[in-house]
Predict the structure.
Amino acid sequence: MKQYHIHNTFLSLLLILAAVTGGCAKNDQTAAKEKLSIVTTTGMIADAASIIGGDNIQVTALMGPGVDPHLYKATKGDVDQLETADLILYNGLHLEGKMVDVFENMSKSKPTVAVAAVILDSELRHPTEFQGHPDPHVWFDVSLWRMAVGAVAFEIAQLDSVNRPLYHERATVYLDSLTQLHQWVQEQMATIPEDQRILVTAHDAFGYFGRAYNIEVRGLQGISTVTEAGLYDVTAMVDLLVSQKIKAVFVESSVPKKTIEAVVEGCTSRGHKVIIGGELFSDAMGQSGTPEGTYLGMVRHNVNTIVAALR
Amino acid sequence: MIKNDRPVPIEVHDLTVAYRKKPVLWNIDFSLPEGHLIGLVGPNGAGKSTLIQAIMGLLPVLSGYVKVYGHPLEKNRQLIGYVPQRESVDWDFPVDALDVVTMGRYGHMNAFGKLSKQDREIALSALDKVGMADFAKRQISQLSGGQQQRVFIARALAQEASVYLMDEPFAGVDANTEKAIVALLKELKDRGKTCLVVHHDLHTVREYFDWVMLLNMRLVKFGPTAEIYNEENLRATYGGKLVLLAEAAEKLITKS
Amino acid sequence: MAENLCCLPKPQRNLSRNHNRMDFWELTVRFFSLADANVRQVIAGSILLGGAAGALGCFAYLQRRSLLGDALAHAALPGVGLAFLIVGQKEFVPLLLGATATAWLGALSINAIDRYTKIKLDAALGIVLTVFFGLGIVILTHIQKSGSGSQAGLGSFIFGQAAAMSRQDVVALAVVTVCMLSVVTIGYRHFKLVSFDTGFAFAVGLPVGRLQFILTTMIVLAVTVGLQAVGVVLMAAMLITPAAAARQWTDRLPRMLMLASIFGMLAGLFGSYISFLKPSLPTGPWIVIVVSGIFAVSILFSPRRGVLIRILRHYQHRGKITRDHLVKSLYRVGMERENWYAYYPVSEIAHMWSFTPTELRSGLSQLTAQGFLEREVDMYRLTQNGVSAGARVTRLHRLWEVYLTRYLELPGDHVHRDAEDMEHIITPEMEEQLSQMLDHPVFDPHLQPIPYPTEQKGV
């Protein structure tokens, strides 16, 4: 609860700062074009930006559903879009590993902001395998993601000072719903029995989720999807599942299923029935237009799937 | 062509062959007389190898046809024994001399690749005939040029054909091998076989072959060596490329 | 049985990744006991794949089309994408069919380019590889953009996950291997001739076109089935490397085929084993490392063509040359002093010829061990055998000089250097021939006598 207060104060400070400094700068471009345009990398950022921006802002995401941001390479079409954007929002922390140069280029001519960078380093996870680099999958901890959304709101307010009160209002509502979501997740996850509190997925994206909601997470493939699993990893996972009698494992929409399927086969041959509890959205959200195509919907889907399978 | 009651071993009628749009053989017309040793002679690039390969069906022809004992090639393939040029093959291939000679019997193989005991014996005796019986199990890359040539000839002998086409069998062989090959050719002739042999050494033509075919893109002269192998005809064969003919032919081929 | 297996100890309830590892021996025993289904499947799949690809690769290798497998593996990519576009789902069978179709198209294109244009085969392979693969990337990017959620991992259809071989994969591989075995066994002679001498194959009436078709189809099948199990690089490696390694050890085709299969299978087995020993050792790449290691060993150590063997033989020959010079020098000195059995200190022997200290030392000890020299403290003298040996080398040298002057009509002062080299190489048969041909000459061109002892002993 203490964390909650600090974050709330922090965000309020941000908004006040924006309101104060806002009066000084005037963005001439806003007068020239119809709508301001924001281009984001992941769908999660785009979701937040479009909720806060509403009809006033045109938001586009480069990476659609089912896309792996670790491996994503910008196409020419993407670069063109980035060129015409008024604001570029990306996750940062090396999630979009292959787009670093593009961001550097773009930052010369327009605000190019890593929204996860707003999170204090002490709040981030630093897994040992990642040699000092932080884990970029911050959206799995709703309370951390709330901070990033705050940064999104800040940047939008900066961009379009005219409609600032509008954005402030929408942001406040959305941030509230995020707070509620965080609470809901905590309650739901608490219903999983102690001996089933292990979340097994294809790759190590769910670290923040595990830390925030008190469940042990195991990925088969390591933190990035680029690596290939080894026979030891597969067998070790089977051992874990069998010895702990874990009921379910989960596949991810943006990572190939083959290794998880092999693990299930291995468990079955040892007489332990493991089901694939469902598909989780990890590095990307679901189809746009569906509830899972929004951040709130995605999180709810994930939690419902996990809880139903492990309870 | 004079029609005999017996069909000739090889009849070539109006054959024109192009290689990559360049004319190589132009209106070739001949019938091989049975039971003779025929030397095929001409300058470099005259189309001698091409003629052999065209008869074997290895190259597409622009016009004309080839008949083997009165029938198309596909029907009477097994009557032709073929000795290709030595460098047409990678001699580093992991087979021994007997393997190569046995390949001459592959025309008699069934779909399952089975050869009879008789086939094996024929192969061995062919190898023996060229004096290479001791080298049966020797890997072919360990053979000298002359020995490789003998193996190739043995392979053709194993085919037990009636007419033999040989592409430069004397190229790069030692004197002993050359003598052995000539003796073999003479023996084939005595047994009534016909041989058409591409040859490059003008000095030995008279000694080796009783008929000769002078070729330079077109058939210059064809007949018994004693009659037609003279300076005048040689000059006509070797006297430089027929530029006009070559140009005209090239235009024709590109247009068609 | 499965339940009692030792396995990882109960993981701590904290979220750290450090769990105790099983030690090396436990892991080895567990691997080879084939107790785990995953292990069994991966071993079975990689052994089948290694064996089939190894044998098929031999024919491609001998026809100088080794890179064909690599080109076809890349050519399969657009087929995967197209199949997904048509079916809308990541289904095993349609994707396999798609991959096979475009891989086949690639094979046809390679042949067409080779036959109908001036472009050579290796360039044709490269062109088809890159064009098809580029097309595949375009299609996959389009799929990526179209936002269909279930397309994740299409591209890794190409890169494979060897550690995740399923029963389905193993069955498919087994079918391909059985097909391939039967085809190669039945058509062995046909393929042998077609690979060796296509022209003659035509001449003999073999259906060359159809045979090449069958061979290429086998390669396409192996590539597409193996591809989605283990990926592009591994497939290319398994089609090329075992065949190339096997060639180093044998000059006979049946043995080459067998060795290539065995190498492929060993690589599959040991690559899987290594990736079982520690975390994060990807299985596919380790199989490639093992097969490359086998190749390196073959290149270096094979008795016929190995690099190290050749170096060894070179030094052995140098040793012989040194020993020849030693006995020859001692013989000559003995001739001059009319006493062959005198002792000489090492320092004096060193001056009889230009030896390096190492050569001198090893030469002397070898000759002593072989019975050509006798040793007393640091003095050496010739034995009777040694004298014969020295006489022989001298004789060979002088015979060769006579041969050169008489047959090649070289002047007397030109022949010495040549004879210096030849005296180490002339075999007893050649010596006999020379002697007879030259009619047992008594003197060499420098009027030195040619020794003919009754017994001959070579060094």
About this structure: Chain B has a mean pLDDT of 88.
